[in-house]
Amino acid sequence: MTRIELINAIFERMDVVWGEEGFDGEAQEYDWLLANYGITDEEDVMWMLILQHGMDDLESEDRDDEELMTFLENEQAVVGFLEAFLQKYQSADTVYPR
Questions:
Q1: What is the number of alpha carbons within 13 Å of residue 61 lying toward its C-beta?
Q2: pLDDT of 11-20, one tens digit each?
């Protein structure tokens, strides 16, 4: 899958898991996400950074982070991350309880 296909597939899974209210990044949501899908808050932050980079909307401190920018500009590394992130979101059918 391409980067865009992976991003779209992740959004589709997130819609199922989080429902209409979505994911707010609250501590209890991160705890639930880790317990049910094995996704860490660090992985979720990287997901957001990938999206921001794709929209050319990174904060200046992120643009100044050489290690981060090297990763974000490496298509193979980003696709590998997105594949693993999608696999985690596909690893269960649990829906966040509202």
A1: 0
A2: 999 999 999 9
